[in-house]
Write a structure and sequence with these properties.
Layout (H helix, E strand, L loop, with lengths): L2 H4 L4 E10 L3 H9 L1 H7 L4 E3 L7 E6 L2 E13 L3 E7 L9 E11 L4 E12 L2 H27 L10
Antiparallel strand pairs: 1-7, 2-3, 3-4, 4-5, 5-6, 6-7
Helix pairs in contact: 2-3
């Protein structure tokens, strides 16, 4: 039996990625700037720029109420790390960690954006939360691409 087969699963995490047809600085700004984030992702609006040490607020029509987002790291235009609430956090802290990594590709004309989030309890309710957030970040990548490349707001009217 392999080592992998004998190890117990203790937490859940995921990563999603996509290529955006814009330079890395422009893609970074579209995530860090609340006015831009509010256009294509946070259907209820975003307040506060993603700057290390700040707590900003995101709101979504599909998830009522303001969501506090704690910015752990912001290294323009390479990486943003945030913590936000989850009752299913594996370490019992009440937070999961989401990392946005921006990598220039194709001579800097495009950006590979990878979003990873960890860590949920390895339980049925933890898996439900992780899968829901994975769906949300995949939707965010699609919406970001459509908005930056074509000026289309995919989420408009999607949730209400």
């Amino acid at each position: 039996m392999s080592d992998e087969a004998t190890q117990a699963l203790t937490e859940l995490s995921f990563a999603v990625s996509g290529r955006i047809g814009r330079p890395v600085q422009q893609v970074y700004e579209a995530v860090a700037d609340p006015a831009q984030l509010s256009r294509y992702f946070t259907t209820g609006g975003a307040r506060g720029r993603l700057v290390a040490g700040e707590t900003v607020t995101w709101a979504f029509h599909d998830f009522p109420g303001d969501v506090p987002v704690h910015v752990v790291e912001a290294d323009a235009p390479h990486r943003i790390v945030v913590r936000w609430g989850s009752e299913e956090a594996a370490d019992g802290s009440g937070y999961t960690v989401t990392t946005f990594e921006f990598e220039p590709v194709d001579g800097g004309t495009r950006t590979l954006l990878t979003i990873s989030e960890s860590s949920w309890r390895a339980t049925p309710s933890g898996a439900t939360s992780a899968f829901g957030n994975c769906e949300g970040w995949t939707s965010m990548l699609n919406a970001l691409k459509a908005w930056l490349e074509h000026g289309v707001v995919l989420r408009e009217g999607f949730y209400r």
